[in-house]
Design brief:
The chain is mainly beta. Helix content is 10%, strand content 36%. The chain has 2 helices and 13 strands.
């Protein structure tokens, strides 16, 4: 089953690379379950990012940062339902619903917990799990206005277990991830807590049966 799932998302990434303009005229306006996206912090203009580099402090789990580099494949995230709850591919994500974000390259989920972040001392954000399976620390509530998450709108991601908001701290790391920005959890809903989907492969429910894939932008 994991092999099939990995092949499915690999196919989506390949389609994005080969057919960057396919479906541009009829682009999907919602963020949907099963889509592969990049998330931009609208304040600092950096994309949510991870890689197989562990924190040297705190939990020691896989680090999560933000990067100014637009084309990095390590900034892709799969939108999926929370543990034990189905999320139909192509179905718009409802405002107020909870999701998981799986890092495509390492198959770990965006995660948080009661550890301090290494630079600012806020709440640590990490990637956790094995082949997309983790725990409730991977659950994030989509805070947005209206009925569903619109691609053109910025949203907040509130950690279900701790109530913290996903944020960029403005502080940057040295080696081995030189220049990448610290990503943290903060208690306030003001500040650098707004994120917008950018490049990606957006699934559209009516097109799934016809095997159509809508892609946007020309960069990975």
């Amino acid at each position: 089953m994991n092999t099939y799932k990995n092949l499915h998302y690999f196919t989506l990434i390949v389609c994005l690379a080969i057919f960057p303009h396919f479906g541009e005229a009829a682009k999907q306006k919602y963020v949907t379950c099963g889509s592969v996206v990049k998330l931009l912090n609208t304040d600092y203009k950096v994309r949510l990012h991870s890689h197989d580099v562990k924190y040297g402090t705190g939990s020691g789990q896989q680090s999560v940062t933000a990067t100014e580099v637009q084309e990095d494949i390590n900034s892709h995230w799969i939108v999926k339902g929370v543990t034990g709850v189905s999320c139909t591919r192509g179905e718009p994500v409802k405002c107020g619903s909870s999701i998981r974000l799986e890092h495509t390259e390492t198959k770990k989920n965006l995660h948080s917990h009661h550890f301090s972040s290494p630079l600012s001392g806020n709440q640590e954000i990490s990637c956790y799990g094995d082949n997309g399976d983790g725990d409730t620390g991977d659950h994030w509530t989509v805070v947005c206005s209206g009925d569903s998450w619109l691609r053109d709108d910025s949203v907040m991601l509130k950690h279900a277990d701790t109530g913290m908001y996903l944020s960029a701290s403005g502080r940057t790391f040295g080696r081995p991830i030189n220049g990448q920005m610290e990503v943290v959890g903060v208690s306030s809903s003001t500040g650098s807590v707004h994120w917008q989907t950018m490049e990606g492969v957006y699934l559209h429910a009516p097109d799934l049966s016809a095997r159509h894939i809508h892609s946007v932008h020309s960069e990975l």
